[in-house]
Specification:
120 residues; flat
């Protein structure tokens, strides 16, 4: 699968197929665009960067079962985001983030350069 995130119809169809009859912890094409738009590294540095979103919220350890959520993965190719996978899977049990970004080497270099600058 390789769907450009601006192709809302194709993306919605892929999500619908993956989610089936699920009604909880689901996503929309707009949700995917919103998550990817929050990445503040300029597009020119993102080629090869990947994102994994698991859609889950935190569940206490006392929770008796592991619910499912819609997961998706995206990859940046030459400044454009493509969704490469959408599927239902078990929610991880964690308390913080539900997005994992693996930055390209160029993006890492940019982030380090920006982080080392300071205005006074």
């Amino acid at each position: 699968m390789k769907i450009l995130i601006t192709n809302e119809e194709k993306l919605t169809n892929a999500i619908t197929e993956a989610e089936g009859k699920a009604t909880a912890r689901t996503v929309t094409a707009k949700d995917i665009v919103r998550v990817l738009s929050r990445i503040t590294v300029p597009k020119v540095h993102l080629d090869g960067t990947t994102v994994h979103y698991d859609g889950a919220e935190h569940f206490p350890n006392a929770y008796k079962y592991r619910p499912e959520s819609t997961h998706w993965e995206a990859k940046n190719v030459k400044g454009k985001w493509y969704v490469t996978d959408v599927y239902r899977a078990t929610c991880p049990n964690r308390s913080k983030s539900n997005v994992k970004i693996v930055y390209s080497d160029d993006a890492k270099k940019y982030i380090l350069e920006e982080a080392s600058k300071m205005l006074v």
